[in-house]
Amino acid sequence: MAKIIDGKAISAEIRNEIKQQAAEFESKYGFRPGLAVIIVGDDAASQVYVRNKRRACEEVGFYSEAYELPASTTQEELNALVDKLNASDKIHGILCQLPLPRHLDENEVILRIAPHKDVDAFHPYNVGKIMIGDYSFLPCTPAGVMALLERSGIDVCGKECVVVGRSNIVGKPQAMLLLHKSGTVTVCHSKTKNLSEVCRRADILVAAIGKADFFTGDMVKDGAVVIDVGMNRRPDGKLTGDVDFASVEPKASYITPVPGGVGPMTITMLMQNTLTAAKNSVK
Ligand code: GUN
Questions:
Q1: Are residues 53 and 152 in the same domain?
Q2: Same domain, yes or no: 147 and 249
Q3: For an engineered disulfide with 170, which of 71, 208, 209, 242 has Cβ 3.0 to 4.6 Å away?
Q4: For 48, phi and psi rounded to 5 degrees?
Q5: Cα of 138 to ligand 1 centre, how many Å?
Q6: Is residue 75 in some structural domain?
Q7: Confidence class of residue 140 from pLDDT cuts 50, 70 and 90?
Q8: Which of 179, 185, 258, 178 is nearest to 215 (CA)?
Q9: Cβ of 95 less than 6 Å from ligand 1
Q10: Does the predicted TM-score (pTM) go above 0.85?
Q11: Which of 120, 123, 126, 267 has the most ligand 1 atoms within 8 A of CB, as the residue to mutate?
Q12: Are residues 152 and 250 in the same domain?
């Protein structure tokens, strides 16, 4: 029987710490950390994320601005908004929710957000800093995974860590963060041969491939720590991760549920980055 890593409880604990620090910040400097969230178009999943981000800002006592732009927004209009927010004294972090409608260039937006306000840590400047282990902003989802491990007392040093998924948002930065903690890291993806065999080597398995219930008990070593980054909808509408919880849980030593595992941590790390950005602005 695995111990369930409660992402909601750990997230609440960290948000409380952020709230206290935000209150101290406000009493010292007379203004609150501020986050701007931009959403273009009417993607339903993105709207839920954006609503949750605004709520989280309220919860920790941040100032927030939300920009809900129509799907017909032009690149020039979006660029002009980013420029305005880059110049705003009230805003310390800017997040443009991805994906954008197809006629807009995501890379152009990522490059345009000032690196010191890039709380997603998507700008190549911040990606490079993550690579060398000298970062101001943590990539939100991978940092959430690291916080879950740390607060559950799981040491990464010397462990076989297998990350399945190589996206710029999760897989690649996740591998770097595990490496910085001295894990022995293997990154797998859709072309990996003998995936099950590689997964069975893992002391710590991070599942981030976006396929519902893909990882089954036979792919997991006895006693492994299993972190499920997946967020998929089953045909019946139920939310599920990349891990088949029923067959993996009996073999694992620790496991994150979906929902209630990694998900709540991502936004918490965004709050952490916004606080860091605000603190950096007064240095
Ligand atoms: N879309 C899905 N996840 C994310 C995220 O972490 N940041 C942004 N900007 N867009 C996303």
A1: no
A2: yes
A3: 208
A4: -65, -45
A5: 13
A6: yes
A7: very high
A8: 258
A9: yes
A10: yes
A11: 120
A12: yes
